Each structure stands twice: as structure tokens, then as C-alpha cells.
């Protein structure tokens, strides 16, 4: 099958601008984990379709607002994350849980009526949660997160509720369009050449794909069973976990979140964040599932964590190198690109992408 996304759509600025308006502002965007908002005033900032957004625990509820002050336009929360009142750093306007300015220094100088203050409310966006993941949507429509995730909702909920200790956060900047990186994660055709010493050894293979709405899933057997040989010691503390799978599972939450798991013991969540048409931030989290404390063997645990971290980092470094080569080549290609059955999830991603992007 011919690829549907044309070479120019991987490097043209106009396509990138179009994606902000017609894609990223329309879908549910991952912004963080529930644990990022445990305390009152915990916040994270995000850029969704070009709009600065702050997501913050305000009096116990997670809310999302445009991160721009109603007084004279300063950004309100100026760090990536933290714990701080929702207060502008410029002249000190403070906002309440509804996003309405309530603490204004030298307030009488403005002569505001209550109604006038309510009209200065920060623009608010919808928030929804699935498992341990928090999502925000810019578009004001009725498509719920559960509609959006379709039949994968339950799986994602179960998987992400099983996330235990976060053992690594890895951020790498890649000189490639975000779609090249997403598409690379959606096929295993490249594994033999690119990951011969890493992912290939896991032995995940096959074409067991499930598609629903914008999202897709790959189920794959792996070479070694969970408790075979040397592995039985490593996995012993995790035997009572709720979420168990036989082999390897990889799913996309359209358009730019990938979650994978081996045995339901280790997890990777990768967030592919476009910076410009040619540069992407690849932010990847590694978790292990919750374990029974009494089984603690620190030496084995540390070895296990280190090997997971190294494995994930190596695989993504290998992907980075090849994705940058694709970005260099795509500007000069005369062809539309070809997709095999092993790249069916790339085809599905492209089909769904095309439904959003209008010219
Ligand atoms: S710009 Fe925010 S308080 Fe003045
Ligand atoms: Fe890869």
C-alpha cells in the first residue's frame, strides 16, 4: 500500500501550523500523571497546539487554564512544573479555582465590579483522567476521553493503574518531524537492522494488530517466558500483580503517546512532543509495576532497574539516529512511500491523521 502522508508533510511549516489547528487542538492531549498533582497547588505547564496551558491542583481539583495573565499578558506559571499559587509573577494577580482574579494588588485603582472581574476569567479547558494519565482538550466539544480511546480505554486504565515506581525519565531532542518518530514506533520491520543487539533480542514479532478509532495495539509473543530460567528470581516479587500479560504489548494513544509493557511488569510511556516541523522532543518514562515489599532483594532489583533503563535508552538512541536520516532524505524523495503488512499500524495512523488534516 502507498503511504498517505506525503514527503512534503514531514518538513513544511504550513503542514505543522495546520496540525496545530486541525489536529492537536481537536484531540485529548496527555499532560502528566495523576501523581504530578498530589498536593494542592502542584502544577505542570504544557504547550498544546501552540497554546500555553497550565494544569494545576486547585483546592483539590485538577484544572486546566490558558497560562496567560488577564492583566497584561504575562505567562503565569513560568517553570515546567512545581508547587505554587496560581499567581502572575509580573504584578501579582492571583487567580482562584475558577480562574477568576481574586487577589489584585492595589485593587481600588482598577474600579472593577464583580462582573468585570468574572469577565477576566482565564480560558478553561476540559480535563479527563484514564487510569493514572491526565489529559486536556482545547476543543470544546462532547467527545469524551472514553469515546476517544474507544475499546482501548479499559486496557489503558488497567495498564496505567499498574504503574508503580518511576525508574527513569529520558528526554532527547531529535532532529526529525514528530510523525517520523511516531511511525517508527508503530512498526517492527526496522527492528532487525536498527535494534539487532537490543529490541531484536526480546523476540517480539508477528502481526497481531487491533485497531479502533484513531488508536491501535500490537500484541506480540516474546522469546523467553516470564518465569523461565534466570528470570524467575527477577520477577518473583511481582507475582501478585493485577495486570499480567503473556508477552509484549504496544499501543498508541493517537497521535503522540506510546505505551508498551513486557509481561505487565515493566512499562514505557513515550510522549512525542513536536517543537517545530523539523525538531521533536522525545520524552520517555520507565515504570515497574507495584511489588510486594517483603520480597525486597535490593541487589537483584537494582540490576533489573539498570538493565531496563539501559535497554530503553539504547533502543531510543538507535531510533533517534535513523529518524534523523529519514528527515534528511524525505526532502529529496520522488516517491510517496510504501507500506507492508508489517507496517499496517503506520497505514492506520496515516489514515486517521488525514481525517483531521484539511487543506
Ligand atoms: S501581567 Fe499579570 S499581573 Fe500584570
Ligand atoms: Fe525502533
Plain-language structure description:
With 359 residues, the chain is α+β, with helices and mostly antiparallel strands. The chain folds into two domains: 27-138, Rieske [2Fe-2S] iron-sulphur domain (Rieske Iron-sulfur Protein); 151-356, Naphthalene 1,2-dioxygenase Alpha Subunit, Chain A, domain 1. The chain has ten helices and 16 strands. The strands form three sheets. It has a seven-stranded antiparallel sheet with strand order 1-9-8-4-3-2-5. A seven-stranded antiparallel sheet has the order 10-16-15-14-13-12-11. A hairpin with a 5-residue loop joins strand 6 (94-95) and strand 7. The chain is globular and about 75 Å long. The mean pLDDT is 96. The chain binds FE2/S2 (inorganic) cluster and fe (ii) ion. FE2/S2 (inorganic) cluster (FES) binds at residues 69, 71-74, 88, 90-93.
Number of helices: 10
The first-to-last residue Cα distance is 23 Å
Radius of gyration (CA) equals 22 Å
Order of helices and strands: HEEEEEEEHEEHHEHHHEEHEEEEHH
Morphology call: globular
Name of the CATH superfamily of the largest domain: Naphthalene 1,2-dioxygenase Alpha Subunit, Chain A, domain 1
Structural class: alpha+beta
- Provide the domain count: 2
Strand content: 25-35%
Question: In terms of quaternary structure, what is this?
Answer: single chain
CATH topology (fold) name of the largest domain? Naphthalene 1,2-dioxygenase Alpha Subunit, Chain A, domain 1
Query: How is the largest sheet built, in terms of strand order?
Result: 1-9-8-4-3-2-5
Amino acid at each position: 500500500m502507498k503511504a498517505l502522508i506525503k514527503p512534503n508533510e514531514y518538513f513544511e511549516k504550513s503542514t505543522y501550523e495546520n496540525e496545530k489547528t486541525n489536529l492537536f487542538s481537536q484531540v485529548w492531549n496527555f499532560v502528566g500523571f495523576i501523581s504530578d498533582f498530589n498536593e494542592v497547588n502542584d502544577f505542570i505547564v504544557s504547550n498544546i497546539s501552540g497554546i500555553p496551558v497550565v494544569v494545576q491542583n486547585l483546592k483539590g481539583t485538577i484544572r486546566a487554564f490558558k497560562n496567560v495573565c488577564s492583566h497584561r499578558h504575562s505567562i503565569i506559571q513560568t517553570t515546567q512544573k512545581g508547587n505554587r499559587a496560581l499567581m502572575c509573577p509580573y504584578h501579582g494577580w492571583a487567580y482562584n479555582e475558577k480562574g477568576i482574579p481574586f487577589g489584585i494588588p492595589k485593587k481600588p485603582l482598577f474600579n472593577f465590579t464583580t462582573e468585570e472581574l468574572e469577565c477576566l476569567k482565564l480560558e478553561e479547558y476540559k480535563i479527563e483522567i484514564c487510569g493514572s494519565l491526565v489529559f486536556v482538550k482545547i476543543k470544546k466539544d462532547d467527545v469524551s476521553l472514553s469515546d476517544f480511546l474507544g475499546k482501548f480505554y479499559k486496557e489503558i486504565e488497567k495498564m496505567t493503574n499498574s504503574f508503580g515506581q518511576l525508574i527513569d525519565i529520558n528526554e532527547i531532542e531529535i532532529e526529525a518531524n514528530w510523525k517520523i518518530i511516531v511511525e517508527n514506533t508503530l512498526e517492527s520491520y526496522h527492528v532487525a537492522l536498527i535494534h539487532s543487539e537490543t529490541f531484536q533480542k526480546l523476540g517480539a514479532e508477528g502481526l497481531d494488530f487491533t485497531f479502533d478509532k484513531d488508536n491501535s495495539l500490537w500484541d506480540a509473543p516474546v522469546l523467553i517466558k516470564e518465569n523461565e530460567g534466570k528470570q524467575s528470581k527477577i520477577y518473583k516479587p511481582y507475582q501478585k500483580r493485577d495486570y499480567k500479560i503473556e508477552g509484549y504489548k504496544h499501543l498508541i494513544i493517537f497521535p503522540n503517546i506510546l505505551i508498551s509493557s513486557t509481561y505487565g511488569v515493566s512499562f514505557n510511556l513515550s510522549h512525542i512532543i513536536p517543537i517545530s516541523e523539523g525538531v521533536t522532543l522525545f520524552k520517555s518514562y520507565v515504570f515497574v509495576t507495584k511489588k510486594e515489599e517483603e520480597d525486597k532483594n535490593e541487589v537483584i532489583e537494582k540490576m533489573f532497574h539498570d538493565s531496563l533503563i539501559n535497554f530503553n535508552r539504547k533502543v531510543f538512541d538507535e531510533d533517534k539516529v535513523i529518524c534523523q536520516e529519514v528527515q534528511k532524505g524525505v526532502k529529496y524523495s520522488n516517491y510517496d512511500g510504501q507500506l507492508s503488512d508489517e507496517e499496517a499500524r503506520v497505514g492506520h495512523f496515516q489514515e486517521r491523521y488525514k481525517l483531521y488534516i484539511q487543506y
